[in-house]
Write a structure and sequence with these properties.
By secondary structure, the protein is α/β, with parallel strands linked by helices. Helix content is about 50%, strand content about 15%. The chain has two domains: about 230 residues, Malonyl-Coenzyme A Acyl Carrier Protein, domain 2, CATH 3.40.366.10; about 60 residues, Alpha-Beta Plaits (2-Layer Sandwich). It contains 14 helices and ten strands. The protein has a six-stranded mixed sheet, sandwiched between helices. The longest helix has 21 residues. The protein starts with a strand and ends with a helix.
Length: about 300
């Protein structure tokens, strides 16, 4: 079974959208999305520097646009399941038919703005803890007042909280942890610090007309396969202030019998986790259009 996954914030790099805009019709599509949400996606995806695209209000719509653009180039490949990490869940919702592309871009624009405003209220951030026993790491984070905001599996847990709390973590690593790496994000996402953004998303969600998924949709909340569009949207709203359980998503992939994984642009993070947690499952990360041929080869191999 093929699983299609979409990365979350932090996967973006300067200029990553440039080669995709050279594909026929891509620039026009991105221009239409940009006009609809009031954000120049082409500029930020091709010319902006790392600091500019670190801005939550920019990064999130940019990632969803890139995911949808790359998914459209898979030429009718139909996965057995879809999932996204954090903001990537919106990309997955569009691919599963829960939201239209325009609804997905509008919703993520509201999400990005709301989370950016919430992050501006208090200096916060996130750091990845690499290595160590999960329970030991989680207990240590909670002792420091931090939230285990992303439990990613494969020996990676992302801590979120104030900059002072994160500095304390750097000085006092959990037992067994190899290192702590500060992430290029602008706030403590998936924690109580994001509560104001939830209220904004609840209003935005009320204007949506979600359809039930046409492809199995695996949720960050608990790794469950979600059956209704209404439930998907409710989970999209709630996950902003609640932890991402990517470890449970990967466990679900294994239970479903995953035989291959394709990570949408800008790919690399989720396939990296899968290589450690789902050993032996082949994967392809879409970084540039050159990777599309590899994705099609993978599909042919697992379908043979």
């Amino acid at each position: 079974m093929l699983v299609l996954v979409a990365p979350g914030q932090g996967a973006q790099t300067p200029g990553f959208l440039t080669p995709w805009l050279d594909l026929p019709g891509a620039a026009e599509r991105v221009a239409a999305w940009s006009e609809a949400i009031g954000l120049d996606l082409a500029h930020y995806g091709t010319k902006a520097d790392a600091d500019e695209i670190r801005d939550t209000a920019v990064a999130q719509p940019l990632l969803v646009a890139a995911g949808l653009l790359s998914a459209a180039r898979l030429d009718g490949i139909v996965p057995g399941a879809v999932a996204g990490h954090s903001v990537g869940e919106i990309t997955a919702a569009a691919i599963a038919g829960v939201l239209s592309e325009s609804e997905a871009l509008s919703f993520v624009r509201t999400r990005g703005l709301g989370m950016a405003e919430a992050a501006a209220a208090t200096p916060t951030g996130m750091s990845a803890v690499l290595g160590g026993d999960r329970d030991v790491v989680v207990a240590h984070l909670e002792k420091l007042g931090l939230t285990p905001a992303n439990i990613n599996g494969a020996g990676q847990i992302v801590a979120a909280g104030t900059l002072e709390q994160l500095a304390a973590l750097e000085a006092d690593k959990p037992e067994g942890a190899m290192k702590v790496v500060a992430l290029k994000v602008a706030g403590a996402f998936h924690t109580h610090h994001m509560a104001p953004a939830v209220a904004r998303l609840e209003e935005a969600a009320a204007a949506l007309t979600p359809a039930d998924p046409t492809v199995r949709y695996v949720s960050n909340k608990d790794g469950a396969a979600v059956a209704t569009g209404a439930d998907v949207v409710a989970r999209l709203v709630g996950q902003v202030a609640n932890p991402v359980r990517w470890d449970l998503c990967m466990e679900r992939f294994a239970e479903l019998g995953v035989t291959g994984i394709i990570e949408l642009c800008p790919g690399g993070t989720l396939t990296g986790l899968a290589k450690r947690a789902l050993k032996g499952v082949p994967s392809v990360a879409l970084k540039t259009p050159d990777d599309l041929a590899k994705a099609k080869e993978l599909v042919a191999e697992i379908s043979a």
